[in-house]
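Data card: per-record layout.
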Amino acid sequence: MTAVKAGQGHGGDHVGMPETIEAWKCVGCGRLQADRPCIGVCTDRRVELVEAADYAELAWRVEQLEAALALIARVTPKPEALAESWSALQDRARALLDAGDAATR
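The structure for this 105-residue chain is written out next.
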């Protein structure tokens, strides 16, 4: 088994990063084990889990996409630089979209 613990994404600490726990994950079957002290009043329930590194990667991507969107929403280029500004925004958007497409392959 290998230890599974919260990792850092591209952007380091993320505001709103959910609480994480350290667990052991079997490299063969994927079983997770995270022992915690029980005080006798526990109730088990089914949960869906996401690896912290995957979550951090998506959080970083959302930050980058929001930053690009903020430029479109909040920046007004000078009339003589409109075409150049729009081209730069398109280049940035394409790069972010291409990075997302590469990550899902």
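Known properties of this structure: Residues 1-14 have pLDDT under 50 and may be disordered. The helical segments are 52-74, 82-103.

See the next section for split statistics.
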